[in-house]
Amino acid sequence: MSKMLVLNGPNLNLLGRREPGVYGTTTLQELENNLSANAPSGVTLEFFQSNHEGQMIDRIHRVMDEPIDGIVINPGAWTHTSVAIRDALSAVVVPFVEVHISNVHAREAFRHHSYLSDIALAVIAGCGMQGYTFALETLDQRLKG
Ligand code: DQA
Fold first, then answer.
1. CB 13 within 8 A of CB 19
2. Is 52 considered catalytic here?
């Protein structure tokens, strides 16, 4: 058995209503339900979304004292701005996969740089909601060695 934490950053609570041409029409709740229903066997999931950077950092810190084996994170705009989220993920020493629903490399130049990618186990961009599933599978494979 393993437990993974699925984190979503700012504005991702608006999935389904926010720029549907870019992010699709699936809501965050639908995404989380779908991931729970189709998680790799033996894997349980916990979800957290915040629009507040400090709250996200505090949630990541708690992983240090919890039996969390892997993190999937869509950091949203913090990808491109936040050394603090990077430092929090470095501190907890749990493997994480960075997910972007859209292909950030095909968008504005400011989305091309990530403060997280070089310390991530993997980076998935442009696969839509399926990216989260790919991320969980990647972590599961890694944990099984
Ligand atoms: C995003 C891409 C980011 O550039 C953007 O700020 C988001 C969502 C994505 O999932 O494609 O909020 O991380």
1. no
2. no
